[in-house]
Amino acid sequence: MKVTEQASNYANLDKMSVGELLQNMNREDKNVPVAVEKCIPQIEKLVEGIVERMKKGGRLFYLGAGTSGRLGILDASEIPPTYGAPFDLIIGLIAGGDTAIRKAVENAEDDLEGGWRDMQPYNVGINDVVVGIAASGTTPYVIGAVREARKRGLLTACITCNPGAPIADEVDIPIVAVVGPEFVTGSTRMKSGTAQKLILNMISTSTMIRMGHVKGNKMVDMQLSNAKLVDRGTKMIMDETKIEDYDFAKSLLLKYGSVRSAVDNYLASK
Q1: Residue 133, H or E segment
Q2: Cross-strand bridge partners of residue 157
């Protein structure tokens, strides 16, 4: 039996108090970072491969179904505002299309050719990277996509939570975070989903740093899409340039459109 489908380590959840439920869930969640830590060598190999290809014009595709697909879309959608990267640099695709982000689409994940077909509008190239996300490691939509991508010479990887999962044999870099049975039997939106989210954070953040979108420890290319980010950017400029006038620093940010550009232009004028 798949680890992700094994019976919970806890019986009679419906008899527990709210406090007991929360404490036991938290106890299980503590296993997740340990499982992810064991995957760091594979994650490192993947990030290095992504950066190498992005520097040649490649992109990163995440493919998944259900929770796995939604997590990929979440990670991809946060890259442009956080790092100022193009919206189509990291692309998240889910079985069933955008409708499936909010509502399950019947049988979509069982389409072996669906994942690769969904990638075709993006003119897939040899420098692109495909990461299949599947807690079970058996989702046909995802397996079909990575299989075809690998056949065509693209770098492929997977994020799964089952040892010996079929998808691991279909990719160049298998990332297998074994978090154990879920608190609610089979509910992979829990520990498995948390592990996937942590790994996706590591992949995209490390990639963006290596691609030059972070200076020191700051997001110097972030989009100025709300007042909070304008304030954050203003303070970054003040810290970097030693400007003490908040309004002046803010005016530089708004004039040049990013922390990086404002700092570079200010320092060049000195």
Answers
A1: strand 129-133
A2: 131, 173
Catalytic residue at 37? no
Active site residue 48: no
Give the active site residue among 28, 109, 182, 240: 109
Residue 254 backbone class (left: φ over 0; alpha: ψ -120 to 50; beta: rest): alpha
pLDDT by residue for the chain (270 residues), tens only, comes to 799 999 999 999 999 999 999 999 999 999 999 999 999 999 999 999 999 999 999 999 999 999 999 999 999 999 999 999 999 999 999 999 999 999 988 889 999 999 999 999 999 999 999 999 999 999 999 999 999 999 999 999 999 999 999 999 999 999 999 999 999 999 999 999 999 999 999 999 999 999 999 999 999 999 999 999 999 999 999 999 999 999 999 999 999 999 999 999 999 998
Please state, as a whole number, how many other Cβ atoms lie within 10 Å of the Cβ of residue 19.
8
- The reply to whether the predicted model has a pTM over 0.85 is yes
44, 48, 52, 78: which is the annotated catalytic residue?
Answer: 78
